[in-house]
Amino acid sequence: MPFVRIDLSSDASAEVVRTISEVIYDAMREIANVPQHDKFQVITRHARDELVYPAEGYLGVSYSTGIVFIQITWNTGRTTEVKKAFYKAVAENIHAKTGLRKEDIWISLVSVEREDWSFGNGEMQYAPKL
């Protein structure tokens, strides 16, 4: 049930965008145990002045105009080890398949409870069982 937001430069080609989308989905399935077909993503392209990051870098990481912001909302409960493996797989595979710098793959995870989702019909599909 992850919901993925990908924000990147309008200069990114359709192939790069598709590859980033697939890399994230594959890593969610292989590392974070996300079910097949559970792929909900919003991809937004931005003008260069709409992607804001510290020009001098942050925490020893430098960024370029090729930065990709990835925010994933998913269920709580994944271990630190799973999250670390996920970050690494996404950055390394995006780099390997697109040539984008690993330093430019910025990821934020937002953990929520299972009942925080509605997949349509105004229903809470994962309502607690009473």
Key terms:
about 30% helix, alpha/beta, single chain, about 130 residues, Macrophage Migration Inhibitory Factor, 4-stranded mixed beta sheet
**Average pLDDT value?**
95
The CATH first-level class comes to Alpha Beta
Strand order of the largest sheet: 2-1-3-4
CATH fold name: Macrophage Migration Inhibitory Factor
Strand content: 15-25%
Could you state the oligomeric state of the chains shown? single chain
Task: Estimate the global geometry from the Cα principal axes.
Answer: globular
* Helix content estimate: 25-40%
Biggest β-sheet description = 4 strands, mixed
Question: How is this structure best described in words?
Answer:
The chain is of the alpha/beta class and 130 residues long. It has a single domain (3-116), classed as Macrophage Migration Inhibitory Factor, CATH 3.30.429. Helices cover 28% and strands 23% of the residues. The chain contains two helices and four strands; from the N terminus they run E-H-E-E-H-E. The protein has helices at 14-31, 80-98, and strands at residues 3-9, 40-46, 68-75, 105-112.
